[in-house]
Amino acid sequence: MTATSTTTAVNRRKRLPQWLRLSLPTDRRFAQTGGRLGTLRLHTVCESARCPNRWECWSRGTATFMIAGDRCTRACGFCAVTTAKPLPLDPEEPKRVAEAVRQMSLKHVVVTSVARDDLADGGAEHFARTIRELRALCGEDLAVEVLTPDFGGRLEPVETVLAARPDVFNHNIETVRRLSAKVRHRATYERTLSVLRMASEWIGRSANGRRVYMKSGLMVGHGETESEVLETMHDLRAAGCELLTIGQYLQPTPANLPVVEFVRPEVFVTLRRAALKMGFVHVASAPLVRSSYHADKFKQKTGSEL
Hints:
The chain has 306 residues and is of the alpha/beta class. The chain has a single domain (35-305), classed as Alpha-Beta Barrel (TIM Barrel), CATH 3.20.20. The protein has helices at 29-39, 45-48, 54-59, 93-104, 124-138, 155-163, 180-183, 189-205, 226-238, 265-278, 296-302; strands at 43-44, 64-67, 71-72, 82-83, 108-113, 143-147, 168-170, 213-220, 243-248, 282-285. The chain has an eight-stranded mixed beta sheet, with helices on both faces. A two-stranded parallel sheet has the order 3-4. β8, α9 (226-238) and β9 (243-248) form a beta-alpha-beta unit.
């Protein structure tokens, strides 16, 4: 991550450095997880976004559920999820997500969605229903983490999701201010900060019942500088974020934005230390970190707080 990295973009896919090359596990749980998700007709970010950690996570018996269909109304440059006119919401999907979590015996579940700009509430009530179904079937001890779109920057959908009492409310800023327009489609840096502030203020006003943690994440390797990343971390902390993920951007398909730089592992260590000094409660910073990668480790570190 250098000051000159913004001018080194390439038009062809870069060869992966050694620290990003994965050995595919052969655990039989990989097929079991895929079979269970297929039977219940559920979508996952693991598949739809071509996540590099799918083999590991499915072999661990975990997955990140993607609700509201697999067609997104946005076309972010980093994302492999299909952009197309979405289908109507499936009213039974929240129950099927809960059933999958029950069958998988998960203690911490991450639920995200495609952007649904076609819906009046952006899919917020569908998130809330999914949280309620998870609580009803899997019990109050289940830690529920949601990773939401920006809902057009509107307060009411954010409140709808938070009122269902997830344990973690996550909305990713994805990249630094200068590169936001290039990396994201229709989303903006300031809108993301606004959504996070809305959520943080709601949590502050409604401090009863379950403890809700604020989370966000960003990718590096798009051509940002280290000072820009530090600025973004400061902005997130000021907006109320307590949990942070930082990972390497990897081009999922040739149609997506190329990788400008493969950031060395030691830089992620430096960024993690800086984030902890800023006051973040938990920071996952490493080349293969993604928003939901090993998300349950936060619960393990904080014990009964979730």
